[in-house]
Design a protein that fits this description.
Layout lengths: L5 E7 L8 E9 L5 E9 L8 E7 L10 E4 L4 E11 L2 E9 L6 H21 L3 H7 L2 E6 L9 E3 L1 E2 L5 E2 L5 E7 L6 H7 L2 E6 L7 E5 L11 E8 L5 E8 L10 E8 L20 E4 L5 E7 L5 E7 L10 E4 L8 E7 L5 E8 L6 E8 L8
Antiparallel strand pairs: 1-24, 2-3, 3-4, 4-5, 6-7, 7-8, 8-9, 10-12, 11-12, 12-13, 13-14, 15-16, 16-17, 18-19, 19-20, 20-21, 22-23, 23-24
């Protein structure tokens, strides 16, 4: 199934720069129509210590984009940047950090090559646990205008696209429960899918509740959720599910769904709606449709979507946004609606084989939608 109208473009592409890898983007739309894309950029590879939280800005509906601007560069790897509008020109950016010392040297040597691996060994040799643990965790920061930024504030959960803002200004963050410091990586793997709420734009958080998981699965199989606030007041969450040894009846890289009717305190047991990829991003469209976009890492490689017009009770067959990925290092799409009701979806993918991953976009309309 293909959408009615599809256009593709480039946000940032540094095809052969040794530090030109970009990944895991999100997109927000400010009140004046400015599009802001946050990602982890200026990296050497999928796993490396040099990731930075970066922004790209478009003031012409995504046709042209600013140069890369770094807004966070901790001593360790900054990954998976989310960005949301707080109203007007105000923004919140989220991300998590990683201690690359947990990876085997041979893994990084193969990914980085001799020159960059030598740099990696020299830099990480002087890291101390005190410095690393001070920066290790899940974080948010806010901006009044996209130019100046607050100090980072810790968050109790992490997810690639961060929290969502409710109509009353509260932030709800459905993510993987994490600790900060030395316990971060173990808690990130085994933590529950958990909802938290902030009433002060991320300065502090209150835990709401955990998502029950089905029999035969475990917390280590569930990652990278996203949540949408539906017109009815229900919260609908979707979660990346992967690598279960005890639940082989489900696709090894798929989406599970859960709902809450009490603001995130209690959730339905997670269950699979049948998506053939992951991780998810949810958008409530002005038409009332609920739009889920996700990466597809099995042939055909690329980006896909599915649509629900009954608040997630049923979903359309997959819509192929593009299927030209040179390899499976791609995905993490996120969407905003433009003022003509078209959908603007950003993601990372190689523009051509042999290049670094780039930040790309697709502009499309809902099949059969009156706005299209």
């Amino acid at each position: 199934m293909a959408s009615d109208s599809v256009q593709h473009g480039v946000i940032c592409r540094l095809p052969h720069d040794p530090y030109g890898y970009f990944g895991w983007p999100s997109v927000a739309r400010q009140a004046d129509g400015t599009l802001v894309v946050a990602s982890s950029g200026l990296r050497a590879a999928h796993v490396c210590p040099w990731g930075k939280t970066v922004l790209h800005v478009s003031r012409d509906h995504g046709l042209t984009w600013s140069d890369t601007r770094v807004i966070r560069d901790s001593p360790i790897d900054d990954r998976d940047a989310g960005v949301i509008s707080l109203g007007g020109q105000r923004l919140l950016v989220s991300w998590f950090t990683s201690d690359t010392r947990i990876f085997k040297p041979e893994q990084l040597q193969n990914a980085l090559g001799p020159e960059r691996f030598a740099r990696y060994r020299a830099e990480t040799a002087v890291w101390t646990d005190e410095v690393v643990f001070a920066h290790l965790g899940s974080w948010t920061r806010t901006s009044p205008d996209g130019q100046s930024w607050s100090d980072p504030a810790p968050a109790p959960v992490t997810a690639p696209h961060g929290p969502v803002r409710l109509a009353d200004g509260r932030l709800v963050y459905l993510g993987k429960a994490v600790s900060h410091g030395a316990a971060f990586h173990q808690k990130q793997r085994n933590g529950q899918i958990r909802a938290a709420v902030s009433r002060d734009e991320g300065l502090s958080w209150q835990i709401l509740g955990d998502v029950p998981l089905p029999a035969g699965t475990e917390a280590a199989n569930f990652h990278e959720p996203h949540v949408a606030a539906l017109p009815s007041g229900r919260l609908l969450g979707q979660i990346r599910y992967q690598h279960s040894e005890n639940c082989r009846r489900h696709d090894p890289f798929t989406i599970f769904q859960t709902e809450s009717d009490d603001g995130g305190i209690t959730w339905s047991e997670a269950r699979p709606p049948g998506a053939p990829g992951s991780p998810p991003h949810l958008l409530v469209h002005s038409s009332g449709a609920l739009v889920c976009v996700f990466g597809h890492r099995q042939p055909p490689l690329g980006q896909q979507a599915m649509i629900s017009r009954d608040e997630g009770r049923s979903w359309s067959p997959p819509i192929v946004l593009r299927d030209d990925g040179p390899d499976s290092d791609l995905g993490y799409p996120a969407s905003v609606e433009l003022n003509d009701a078209s959908i603007f979806t950003v993601y990372y993918q190689k523009a051509a084989a042999g290049e670094n991953t780039a930040l790309l976009w697709t502009r499309w309309t809902l099949p059969g939608d009156a706005h299209g």
